[in-house]
Design goal:
about 550 residues, four-stranded parallel β-sheet, 16 strands, alpha/beta, elongated, nine-stranded mixed β-sheet, 19 helices
Length: about 550
Amino acid sequence: MIRMITEGTKTFEWELYKLRRRLRLKNKRPVIIASNCVGGIIYKDLKLPFYSPTINLFIPMDDYIRFLENLKWYLKQPIVPACEEGISYPVGMAADIKIYFMHYDTFEEAVKAWEKRKKRMLLNPDNLFIFGCERGKCTYETLRRFDRLPYKNKVVFTHKEYPEFSSAVCIPGFEEQEELGNVLEFQKNSFWRRRYMDSFDYVSFLNKSHNKFHKPLISVIVPVYQSKPYIDTCVQSVLGQTYSNLELILVDDGSKDDSKAVCERLCDRDPRIRVLAQEHKGVSAARNAGMRAARGKYLFFLDSDDAIHPGLLEQLCQLAEESQAAVSACAYHSMPSENFDKRKRRQDRRKCKHKMKRPFYLKNQEVLRSFIFVEGLESWHAIGGKLICRFRAEELWFDEKISNGEDTKYMYELLERGADAVVLPFRGYYYRRRNNSISRQTSIEAYKSIYACDCYIRDKEIRYGRTDYAQQWERYMVSRISWWYASSHMCEDEILRNYILELERTERSSGFWKKLGVRIKLQYMLAFHCYPVYSFFCFLREILREIIEL
């Protein structure tokens, strides 16, 4: 008797549980694409018609991902019968995709249902929700491919956590297994009737709520070297972000001050911080170490003496998720170190969004042109202020052989691979101007690294046959050499000046010199032969820049 009452109570509560889910559902026509029976069970729970053809069937995970990668094409293919030994239910092929119609008696019945539900799906193609399961020879690479699928609403059930994949949702109860079990079974250790899949709130997913799976992990990588006075401001600007699903990787590059101790103290305060330590190898090696340790879907590089706006990562991530662009970028705000904190506080009060300045998308060739011709407020030559989709930058590393200009080379190689971008027209990255920073070093080693990077880009453009781009980059190089020579008047390093003169002679003898244009040649003449006038114009330019950035 007690058992009957208990079972009756459980049944009543189970029906009430499903009723509550139905009442919460706002999206009444979701198109659920699933590789197994998950989609059909969700439709039945919510008492909805089957708006998808992938119901009451099974598609192996590798085939399923291939199906999703070219969904429109496969849906146009006829389903033809196939045979498989030991299978009693119908099996069909859509081109090279094998489909197991497990809950149908005949092949004709299965195809009829497929075609009927396909028509329903085509009435609402923009309301897709993709479900996958880590079962049936589903490897790590399979999960990676699933995460790259160009669908905003996608989720794959897994047996353990995969923080590097924003689409992965761990289903508790299978942690000790090598793959996911049957998520449609009822949990053994639960008093109430709950299936394993019920740990995932699929109603919120179908309602497009902003749950964890819509907030992918961002890995913020900060190389640290002799940065004790600035590191706390940098870290606090990251921890104070309105976007919380992030990890902060501090890579100490053999600092001889107390930078490492400061990093470790900060690490003890927040579990999102990790500290890596290495011998002094340079900023490129430090960033590469951070990339190897990163687990996020997106990478964001921040120098230890810089900072960012509190809402920057949230805005960049939202743009990246919506556009699926490889790079989500903002403009940078240059601030003198003397009043950096004061200006930062004032800038922090500004909103990232502006009605008159909307984000815009750039195709690969448009971004590459902006890089070469130095167009727009955003600096494509610097790595700061760029949220980079990790899988689009796989096996791309910073050049550890050069000490300066490494981020310019990295960005160029990323764009060379075909990266596109979405731009937030807001100065959300705060660059600290200080005389002893790496980017402002005046040494032969620094100049050699930058010049080598410039030659690499120019020569690549020549090989690609983009002579107008190569010519423009040569103008940029001559302009930089002119500035170097003018700056050498402020130091007494004859070896450095002789090196710059050697570069000047090399560029004058190149075939590009005659095509440089009047402005660049005038700039060169003033820098090398009339320094006071050149210095005066540079002074005016600095004042104008300060006025613009206020």
